[in-house]
Design a protein that fits this description.
alpha/beta, Rossmann fold, four-stranded parallel sheet, about 150 residues
Length: about 150
């Protein structure tokens, strides 16, 4: 595969109550966004663990998005607070393991923000597209930890 043909694989974990509904609004409004995103609907962004994000990268994702309700609007009261506390630590862990933090995005998008959803997907896809494919990036870069990158 050449760099010119490279299309990033992006996985989006979307909160059922807000971000997924925002994606649905984008679809019913016939707003177009890159087909690189594969959506996984989750009950709450707070249910997306750092281990799940790391596994998603390990399984071949070039980028991962976690989209949830705006702070204060969580259907489960504090789920997005949990996300807000855990994900910055995950970004540091990604850097430590040799994965660029630009490959990971956390954002709050409500059910009424279909346009923001589309804009976010477009911008994130372009940002990830500027990076090398994940498998090549992991094998070219020596992780900060000095640990050998496994063959997948």
């Amino acid at each position: 595969m050449t760099d010119e043909a490279y299309e990033p694989k992006i996985i989006g974990f979307l909160c059922n109550w807000c971000s997924y509904a925002g994606a649905d609004l984008a679809g019913t409004s016939r707003l177009k966004y890159p087909p690189n995103l594969k959506i996984i609907r989750v009950p709450c962004s707070g249910r997306v663990s750092p281990e799940l994000v790391m596994r998603t990268f390990r399984e071949g994702a070039d980028g991962v998005m976690v989209l949830g309700c705006h702070i204060g609007d969580c259907h489960y009261s504090t789920g997005n607070h949990r996300t807000a506390r855990r994900m910055p630590v995950l970004k540091a862990l990604l850097e430590f393991t040799g994965i660029e933090s630009e490959r990971f995005l956390v954002k709050w998008i409500s059910a009424s923000e279909g346009g923001l959803f589309v804009e976010t997907v477009r911008e994130f896809t372009e940002a990830v597209r500027r990076l090398p494919p994940m498998r090549r990036a992991l094998h070219e870069a020596e992780p900060a930890s000095g640990v050998r990158v496994p063959e997948w």
